[in-house]
Amino acid sequence: MSPPQPPAPLRVTVWSEGRHERRDPEIAQRYPRGMHGAIAEGVTEHLGERARVRTATLDEPEHGLTEAVLAETDVLTWWGQAAHKEVADEVVTRVQRRVLAGMGLIVLHSGHWSKIFTRLMGTTCTLRWRNAAERELVWTVAPGHPIAAGVTHPIVIEEQETYGEFFDIPTPEELVFVSSFAGGEVFRSGCAFRRGNGRIFYFSPGDQDYPVYHHPQVRRVIANAVAWAAPERVGAVPRLTHSAAGWFETAAGGPA
Amino acid sequence: MSPPQPPAPLRVTVWSEGRHERRDPEIAQRYPRGMHGAIAEGVTEHLGERARVRTATLDEPEHGLTEAVLAETDVLTWWGQAAHKEVADEVVTRVQRRVLAGMGLIVLHSGHWSKIFTRLMGTTCTLRWRNAAERELVWTVAPGHPIAAGVTHPIVIEEQETYGEFFDIPTPEELVFVSSFAGGEVFRSGCAFRRGNGRIFYFSPGDQDYPVYHHPQVRRVIANAVAWAAPERVGAVPRLTHSAAGWFETAAGGPA
Amino acid sequence: MSPPQPPAPLRVTVWSEGRHERRDPEIAQRYPRGMHGAIAEGVTEHLGERARVRTATLDEPEHGLTEAVLAETDVLTWWGQAAHKEVADEVVTRVQRRVLAGMGLIVLHSGHWSKIFTRLMGTTCTLRWRNAAERELVWTVAPGHPIAAGVTHPIVIEEQETYGEFFDIPTPEELVFVSSFAGGEVFRSGCAFRRGNGRIFYFSPGDQDYPVYHHPQVRRVIANAVAWAAPERVGAVPRLTHSAAGWFETAAGGPA
Amino acid sequence: MSPPQPPAPLRVTVWSEGRHERRDPEIAQRYPRGMHGAIAEGVTEHLGERARVRTATLDEPEHGLTEAVLAETDVLTWWGQAAHKEVADEVVTRVQRRVLAGMGLIVLHSGHWSKIFTRLMGTTCTLRWRNAAERELVWTVAPGHPIAAGVTHPIVIEEQETYGEFFDIPTPEELVFVSSFAGGEVFRSGCAFRRGNGRIFYFSPGDQDYPVYHHPQVRRVIANAVAWAAPERVGAVPRLTHSAAGWFETAAGGPA
């Protein structure tokens, strides 16, 4: 066995629509470098040299998610809200294939209704909501999970958009966080999925109307999720394979 | 194939400690026929002739759970709070074996800390609590699950003991309900498990200090759970089995 | 409470491509009433008057799956192999919505690669295969599950197409059967999923080249699956819902 | 944020009965440093300086698992076969508590019937078996899982004891491997569980009668499992906690 090498830094692409911050001065003041900027900052803050973070937004060519960018992305984070329909189907298919090949995907807040998330889930991904500046408490229900490492119990977010059940998703492979809101709703706010060779984490806190992506604990969770979703290596999309009997006896063998 | 027979009625045994109601006049007034009486009533109310319900309590010989009683029980419901330690280990083992053989088990409220539940779970089954007459909202997170059939979303319970996470249980095979409490806590209040040939459902609403077992929706959930946990037939406890190669080719074949 | 009514019969639609049997005399001899005919026969054999079974095939108008037919279908079974691409996207969307609203869906054998299954799963649903008349053994890994009720352990199928892992599906909510094949492959052959208000079961045994749908145990599993997937009632597709604070206090309350 | 520190090496304790190798010359020749020696070697081979490995065996005082040893153990691996009953209940309780507090536990082969595994699972953990030198194929069913990283698909083990279903365990939180055996049996051979703050992995390959712990791929899986089971930090055993309303507003906040 060769000695373990220092691992190469994780290549993270932080994606968001990037429009609210340009159009609405209040949001621009809250997120002067964009929500993607705040999210990227939080990842760097926690992962330091373990990650190399770049951002991409909707209005770039191919939404900033060209084949070349995805080929160099180990984990993609996704925030969208008002312009889900403007995301090109071709890019959605490209991202989906990359996830099935192994790229990690972190879907944030209103990204629950993005094309890429509903495509990967197969359900409507709808939920109950209101925007009433209610307090959100994020409770850990899987304390041994790496995404919960170092996270306070509960995370207290003073003001947030309210999300409530029923959240129409497949049963998460791992349920990490459940939130309550001042109005009484509950929401499965931290949900881990495996699809193909890839890992997906949905995390609901975060909104353009509240400074949630500056919250130290929210940043910690997102950074933990990025680290957790990192693949050993991104391989190929699973495909239909014809195999003769006994193929494995002579084959060198490879991954599943 | 023979034509389907009218199914035999489900044999349900409702167990509780049966002491609070004898010692505390206020509780006696709330539950004149005991908490077991109220729970049994709710099951009968919903399942009618589909179930034959009896009750058993701690201070009966062998806690009312003799081999004979268990042999005639398809689903057992369990409520305990103050006297978990008084339940004989021999009876716990007997119930555990019956569950693994296929008997359904519905564990209610403070039964989370009973010997039988912690034995079957392998964890501490501890949680966070306070008794402050807070409003509990029980939200369905698995609307297609039979235990949620006909249940309002949310169930509103005006006053309840508060339970909160972290609830130290194995990940439920199916999470059906999540509650919020007025104080902000959340709790996985409806959890389904499979163990051996048996099915287990934990449902947290219900307490000696509040009339929760008279709540129509709580009764509906418990009745649904009893119906869901009913085995096709109670078979044998799984056991270590030595099998010669090809045993299945000549065997008549039987259940797993 | 009103006394329990005799339940209305389950409305089952058995769908298949219906082409192999018309084109290939050998297959026609094996399945003189079509594969759909054999499957329908097996369901009726086991569920008797509890089910009312009809069939539909690809070449009927709208593939026999009009809005009207789906509105009267509680459980749909799906067999496809050579003509997945010919299924109209509009019909796929219609079936998907009906499943999310609560209709049960049983996907059989090569239906793993159908549009409706891959749409609901969000993954490629690809696998490893060869057609070599190998013996398949279907082992129960969830003996308490209703779909395994009365099923021998293992089911021995003398000749079958071989399917092997990796099967690119989301982790099933419940894994009921795992198969081995004479050549050494294993396959998760019985997988239960919940999506929206609906239940989905994938069962891999069955092929046009082998008389698998005449196998008594295979028929039993399919009939069990149909009964398990039956909804309490088919409701609405989940949708994005705006709710004012405290909406549940005054609302009559309804399903999730 | 402080810059990330080089992580402290993982403290691994490899436990086995350590008797077969002393009593049976053939086994001694196969495993000259004991099975624990071979297992420890494999972990070191893969994790190198990331792990500090020691061994402990049944006949040491307190089976080599004193409070002091466990306090310095991040991950414990367990192999037992003939002497499960000789393990002191006090030590079992000690290990169980340490797992619930966060220590990783890797249970190997016939360890399925150990006191510690059955205690943590709550079921009989029984299975079907024969000792007939059959070929085992270990198939990956969760290719994105860290325990499957770099593992061939399938792992081919020329001769092994045969294990078959039904394996009476709770549904694993994550099913990573499924094996087939030449005789036709299948077995869920790689099963991940979370209990309390700790992670548990059961891996079935390995036996005193076959050189399985010298198999490069088996060693890789065990090393991967050790790395996966490593806790961020071992905390406290979950316990019943009384909390006043609003406790989280003033508390500094801590882990769940």
From TrEMBL, chains A, B, C, D:
InterPro entries: Class_I_gatase-like, ThuA-like, Trehalose_catabolism_ThuA_prok
Residue span, ThuA-like domain: 11-229
UniProt-listed Pfam families: ThuA
Gene3D superfamilies: 3.40.50.880
Annotated protein name in UniProt: ThuA domain-containing protein
